[in-house]
Amino acid sequence: MIRINLLPYREAQRAQRSQLLVLAFIGVLLLAALLYYGIYSIFSARVSAEQQKVRYLQGVTTQLDKKIASIADLRKKRDELLSREGIITDLQDQRDMVVRLFNTLARVTPDGIFLTKLQQTGNSIRVNGYSQTNSQVAAFMRSIEASKIFAKPELNIISKSKLGNEEVGQFTLQMSIRPPAAANKSDASAQHKDTQP
Question: Which regions span the lipid bilayer (predicted)?
Answer without folding.
Answer: 20-43
